[in-house]
Amino acid sequence: YPTWKRTLARRARESQMKRFCRAQAIQRRLEEIEVTFRELEQQGIKLEKLLRDENKSPAEQQTQWTNQLLYLVQKKNNLMTEESDLMIAVQELKLEEQQCQLDEKLRSYMNKDDTLKTAEDEKAEQEILKQLVEVVNKRNVLIQLQEEKRLSEL
Predict the structure, then answer these.
(1) C-alpha angle with apex 95: 94 to 98, nearest 5 degrees?
(2) pLDDT at 81 over 80
(3) Long-range contacts for 93-98 (Cβ within 8 Å, ≥24 apart)?
(4) How many domains does the chain have?
(5) pTM above threshold 0.85
(6) For residues 6 and 10, what is the distance between their CA atoms, to the nearest angstrom?
């Protein structure tokens, strides 16, 4: 088994583990965001109830509650933005994994001697290459989307 093949296999496993760890971290953060959403919702409900009973409280207190409610809305919007970014990252990870698998398949066809390739092998190689280009284009679209989003936030 040539050294370069072992090196490629090891690098593929390492990159797969990195993607797996990133996916786990993203999943944990999405769960944290969901919990925080619920907490913000409960706090918002309490503040709304307090504001509806406005006849019983001074104007200064109402202003304070309104400011707290606006702060909760802002916090929720920030979490929604983060959640959206994480969902894009999940899609990017899936495409990255798909690209690695297609790279591996394509490499196996390309390493095969041309004299041993059948018509089906050549057709399969072209199909994998086509799929690989599609995946790269999809990843490019996601990166452009993230960049546009980042620029619009600035």
Answers:
(1) 90
(2) yes
(3) 93/19, 93/22, 93/23, 93/26, 95/135, 95/138, 95/139, 95/142, 96/19, 96/139, 97/16, 97/19, 98/135
(4) 1
(5) no
(6) 6
